[in-house]
Amino acid sequence: MVHSLAIAGIIVARQVLGQYLLKFPVKLKEIKLVLSMPKLLKAKDIIDAELPRLTQKCHELEQRGLKPNLNVVLVGDNPASHSYVKNKKRMCEKIGAQFVLHHLASDIPETEFLNLLGKINNDKAVTGCFVQLPIPKHLQHLDVTQMINPTKDVDGFHLNTVCDLYLGNLDKVIPCTPKGIITMLRKNNIQIEGADIVIIGRSHIVGKPLSLILEGLNATVTLCHSRTKDLKKHTRSADIVISAVGRAEFLNADYLKDGSTVIDVGINKTDKGLVGDVDFASATEKAIAITPVPGGVGPMTVFSLMENLLMTTETILKERS
Ligand code: NAD
Q1: 36: pLDDT strictly greater than 60
Q2: Residue located nearest, by CA, to atom 17 of ligand 1
Q3: Residue of 57, 88, 208, 286 with catalytic role
Q4: pTM passes above 0.85
């Protein structure tokens, strides 16, 4: 209610200001800039505030006999994968969790790869693990996400985890990017219940699980994709638009209604560096809150991985006692 009133207030203020600006365009230029700037949904603010809680939990688990221990299997030398793994290692170090990287050559024989997975799955000291995707072609016929011990599934891609999501069990491990987006919305008091939310992109790791979670939180969800007939028709009436497409800066103000929240999941390599799916400068004309790229959904994904690691460690510890 308060949120809706705030949005309405800003929309009216923008309209009134617009009338004045027609008469005094130069003098009021700076005021316009300030009033039209949406709230920047930065991951750092949330992570800085939440890290002490995670560090404390990590320490407590260690005291109770099981140190959170994340094992990552990285095959080959994809630069983006290296960078993602580095961020995950850094966050593990921040909260005091063990981090072990198994870096394999891109031509590793399948049997060796499978032996390593088996070893990690059965290692009692390991409390969370995943294979960094993508993997080289000769291993792609393997369904690696289903080969992970489900109790150590910190990515949340195992079918057991998917089944929990489908059944609406949201207090268990859930995939990291959707989980990070939910945390981002909640920590910024952006109303989910009853909101009209459009997700663009239906991948198994972002769009699809996110649609299940948001539906479970009582939002009205529309899941759009490459065959959606008229994307703007949907996005223009959404309270929240979440883009996970991988198409640089396509989502501009024309796709949005005034006062909407925009969550940019996309990471696109361009000549000017990494950009999201959202044309940030244009979208800020209509958005009331927006995530930056970088510094928005990406770090929230890594943060959620840490939360999942603490959850799997807790579960394993309880099962042992
Ligand atoms: P994907 O690459 O598997 O699929 C893209 C999706 O976009 C598909 O569902 C497709 O239907 C849809 N799509 C393609 N063209 C479209 C169009 N013109 N209009 C509407 N929909 C269209 O999806 P993904 O793996 O979820 O990745 C999407 C983007 O998100 C990529 O840029 C990826 O790098 C990024 N990503 C970021 C994070 C993060 O933590 N920030 C995590 C995962 C993925």
Answers
A1: yes
A2: 226
A3: 88
A4: yes
132 counts as catalytic: yes
**What per-residue confidence (pLDDT) applies to 15?**
55
Mutate to test the pocket of ligand 1, among 174, 224, 245 (most ligand atoms within 8 A of CB): 245
Does residue 201 line the site of ligand 1, with CB under 6 A?
yes
Model pLDDT, residue 152: 98
Specify the range with the lowest mean pLDDT, choosing from 16-30, 163-177, 190-204, 267-281.
16-30
Counting from 1 in the atom list of ligand 1, the atom nearest the Cα of 250 is 18
Q: Indicate whether 21 pLDDT > 90.
A: no
* CA of 266 relative to ligand 1 center, distance in Å: 6
Residue 26, pLDDT > 50, answer no
From the candidates 57, 153, 155, 179, give the one annotated as an active-site residue. 155
Ligand 1 atom 31, closest CA: 246
Three-class HEC string of the chain: CHHHHHHHHHHHHHHHHHHHHHHCCCCCHHHHHHHHCCEECCHHHHHHHHHHHHHHHHHHHHHCCCCCEEEEEEECCCHHHHHHHHHHHHHHHHHCCEEEEEEECCCCCHHHHHHHHHHHHHCCCCCEEEECCCCCHHHCCCCHHHHCCHHHECCCCCHHHHHHHHCCCCCCCCCHHHHHHHHHHHHCCCCCCCCEEEEECCCCCCHHHHHHHHHHCCCEEEEECCCCCCHHHHHCCCCEEEECCCCCCCECHHHCCCCEEEEECCCEEECCEEECCECHHHHCCCEEEECCCCCCHHHHHHHHHHHHHHHHHHHHHHHHC
pLDDT in tens, 44-74: 999 999 999 999 999 999 999 999 999 999 9
